[in-house]
Every structure is written in structure tokens, then in C-alpha cells.
Amino acid sequence: MNSMGLGLQLKDSIPVTEHHDLLWKAFSCVKNELLKKFQLNQDKMNFSTLRNIQGLFAPLKLQMEFKAVQQVQRLPFLSSSNLSLGILRGSDDTIDILNDPSQSEVEYKVMVEYKLGFL
């Protein structure tokens, strides 16, 4: 047996753990991966339930309403609560106290210039 074959056998048989730097990467958690797609999965489940109960037209109508509501925008430096989107999703009774847009530090002039394409 040549040394190349032995090296491949050792590499495949011995598990090698790589160094995980916790300062740069947080602890790996299943919850973080699931929360990234939570709203998408929730919408898919609601659409499939709505389709089974009311037929094909109901989810299509709701998707058109979602797209129409998402196109409405304010000036970039004004925070928007997206109340109409929250009403359509049924999350208008949820209050988010940790993500307060009034406490963000924003340069308004730069945001408007970027939105208009000057930067």
C-alpha cells in the first residue's frame, strides 16, 4: 500500500475537529437557524391551510395584498411600523420592545442620497 492511500485512510477514519473561535462566531444553536426562516415557514403554513379551507383564490389574493403593502414606503430616515403588513400577518397585537427604531443612530441626509442614487 502506498503512502498516499494510507494518508487518505487516516484522514477518513480519524475525526479532526477544527478550532471554533467563540469571539468571532457565537455558539452554534439550532434555535438561531430555525428563527431565520420562521416567518417564511409561518406564511407557507398559513397559505396552505387557507388554500385547503377556502380554495386557491384566497392565498393568491392574500399574496397580492402582501406585495402591495410591502411596496408602500416612507422616506428612508423615517421609521415605518408596517402596521398594514402586521395586520395582514395577524401580528398586530405583538409589541416588540427590544427593536425600537426611535433609538437608532442614523444619518438622514446620507440615507436619502443613497436612496435617490446620488451615492
Write a compact overview of the structure shown.
The protein contains six helices and no strands.
Describe the structure.
With 119 residues, the protein is mostly helical. 55% of the residues lie in helices and 0% in strands. It is built from six helices and no strands. The longest helix has 17 residues, at 38-54. It is extended. The termini are far apart. The model has no long low-confidence stretch (mean pLDDT 76).
List keywords for this structure.
single chain; 119 residues; mainly alpha; 6 helices; 55% helix; Ump1; chaperone
Low confidence ranges: none
Radius of gyration (CA) equals 24 Å
How is the biggest beta sheet arranged?
none
| Proportion of helical residues | 55-70%
Distance between the termini: 63 Å
The helix/strand order is HHHHHH
Number of strands: 0
Q: Summarize model confidence as the mean pLDDT.
A: 76
Approximately what portion of the residues adopt beta-strand conformation? under 5%
Which structural class should the secondary elements be placed in? mainly alpha
List the helices and strands and how they pair.
Layout: H1 3-13, H2 30-36, H3 38-54, H4 57-71, H5 83-89, H6 108-116
Helix pairs in contact: 3-4
